[in-house]
Amino acid sequence: MSSPNGQGxxxxxxxxxxxxxxxxxxFWRVASQTLLTPIITASLYLFVFGATLGERIxxxxxxxxxxxxxxxxxxMGVINNSFANCSSSLFMSRYLGGIVDLLVTPVxxxxxxxxxxxxxxxxxxxxxxxTWLISTLFAGMPWTSPLLAVLMALxxxxxxxxxxxxxxxxxxxxxxxxxxxxxxLLPLIYLGGVFYPISILPAPWSTLSHLNPMFYLIDGxxxxxxxxxxTSFAVAxxxxxxxxxxxxxxxxWLIGTGKSLRS
Amino acid sequence: MDKALHIENLSKSFASVPAVxxxxxxxxxxxxxxxxxxxxxxxSTIINMVSGITRIDSGSITAFGFDTRSQxxxxxxxxxxxxxEIVIDNFFTVAQALSMHAGYYGVDDDPRWxxxxxxxxxxxxxxxxxxxxxxxxxxRRFMIAKALIHRPRLLILDEPTAGVDVELRHSLWExxxxxxxxxxxxxxxxxxxxxxxxxxxxxxxxxxxELVALEPTRDLVRxxxxxxxxxxxxGPLTTIPSELEVYHPRLEGNGRQLILCLPTDGSVSELxxxxxxxxxxxxxxxxxxxxxxxxxxxxTGAGSKS
Lengths: 263, 306
Fold this sequence. Notes:
heterodimer; A: elongated; B: Rossmann fold; 2 domains; about 35% helix; about 25% strand
């Protein structure tokens, strides 16, 4: 046996790229759950709202219902999958004990967050992209500002990747983790304007909906695609960006201090 | 030369219950150092503080001259840890996990070194399996391979042979000796005291978060062990001669067996003279020396509780 101590040259970013690779391979290996299932769900929504109701309802002047709902469905896929990727991966690592393999390595907290976030963004973006491709079978979109739309989708992905990390850190078991998804994320998405414009709601629901952060993400994304929305793109982007920064700082603090990760 | 590990005034409490109390000790480069103690003594807490899994309340740890908190990127590269609990990741096969694992430590995968570990730990037939498909022993071997994949300078083994059969235990220890001979410092905890006695250059015994002994293994056993001399007499003895009182004598076998505790300094000539002068008529004799097991029980007080 040769000497075990002839360690190679230290590459400061290799721990990060390794963790990123592992996180991408992790969801890729179970693609039927992580990619196919959300795409099928999105396809069913598209079929219901595109092929059946799409031409018959209009909630926004100048657009049929399919065109209205498609941006929301794309973003819903991005958000759900970004959240699920971070939360399930980190929580499973904590639950099964595999996290200690990572905690004893030179991976820094920023590298930790970045790797988890980028993997979540990739999964969210893939689901969003395929949802959009399938949606072209039902309705064409004007794509007023495609770059801004992509920017908004990426921002939503980053935001919910941070939320996923935070949920995984605070979750004590699978029940509490699913509570974040079922009792927080789902109502926020459904009440955030995916299926209807906030402006058609009576008071005080319309005003209250402005407190829902999901509203700004969905409205901003729709605004960038259709060119119209309940609020201006700048406000939607600003509020979403601010929230992303707050959640990122929170996640960074939790991971930096080792909350629920290091005893 | 920097110490492999320098621990100074280390303390840690969990929910106000002290687990490690103001502990200080060093581990020299190249040695096999054993950390022993009953369950809850604080052994794993120390290992977890060294490796970064547990936060330090007060005190400091340096590994090869680097602080484990402020310079953790340097120290963690030099440490390999085999955790007490089996770590499960079923997303990757043994081969995939091993080829990827060095990257976490910032070093490129070395296929030759990886193959050496696979061969030496008999992981070859199991490379295509995920962890859940491995037997308990194979899981341990896999964890050791992962801990060594980045060629650490200090290998930490937290009860690596717990629940492992005798044959595997022997082969694992042989492997540990081999990598130690090749320059890797070893810090291990084990419940198998006989193994610690055979393996370790030095042993620290902990109890209730404190060190109760830290010495070279041989010195520790010699200093604290009790050697006894059992004499088979040709006739029963009713009273023990007062000259032998210093040897804490006792009689067994209807007065035909006299048991004496031998001096810890190893000198027995005076005793032999006294026995000769007393003309006790000895048919046979037997000596016995307690090992680390008895020393351990003596120091931790575990023996008196049972």
